[in-house]
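User: If only I could read backbone structure tokens as easily as an amino acid sequence. Those tokens are not coordinates but codes from a learned vocabulary of shapes. Could you go through the record with me and say what the backbone is doing? Here is the record:
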Amino acid sequence: MSLAGVATAAYGATHGGDGAGTASPRSAPAQPVPTTPAIDWVEQAGTRIEAYVRRYDGHLAVAALDRRGSAAVTVGARRFETASIVKVNILAALLLRQRPPGKALGSATRGLAEAMIESSDNDAASALWQKIEGSRGLTAANRVLGLRETRPNSQWGRTTTTVADQIRLLTALTSPTGPLTPQDRRFVMGLMAKVVPDQRWGVTAARVAGNRGTYVKNGWDTADADGGRWLVNSIGRIVEDRHDWLVAVLSDHHVTREAGVRVVEKTATYVLEELRAAAAHDVPSQG
């Protein structure tokens, strides 16, 4: 990813003889020229992103990963309540229970899945939560999905997670080497691409002109333990020329839902701006 420094060799000059009138070439020891230090553009971007997140005093965390490159950043290890972003996790758990793998959901169950993701229907989520056997089923599924920091709660919206785990989930839902079949991956992404217009905020704000696909699931709720303040989360995927971004932003302690949405959108936009610029620096020049 980083730019490599270029070393040049130094050669000794030919010196005169000792009075015999003849020249005897003699090479001086080669002296290495110091190389230009390699610049890790992604690391520098990560430092700026960390400073940006730190201003929120632990109430914000973000992670992003480019599936088509090596640009990645994770800032914040705190567990946040998921609210409705856990619905993507519930759907993944449901699909993993299908036998044989990749078997299409029945029409009634498919309808519940569509309502749960596309319009964030809570009743549909509760029905599917029961179908996967609640916390026990989510825990079992998360072992397969590679999640390590998500703790299910009997009240599904109070499940806690980290941005790192949400990137692991998105990776499992998009990777050809993940545990889901191609049909199941297309199904999940298809629903996340069809979220109703008034819920297509969050990480989608980071898209740029010419993007080839945007996928999102958001979560929001008030927290009694935080004096009724709002938690606002967003996870998703943005596919564009040369990049395929997976993004997770978790946050809480907002006075209003609208304030939380603004923070999440500004954060997602800033992070991808930094990572796009870093990736552009690391593209080898053409000679």
Q: What stands out?
A: The helical segments are 41-54, 86-96, 107-118, 122-131, 134-145, 163-174, 182-192, 257-281.
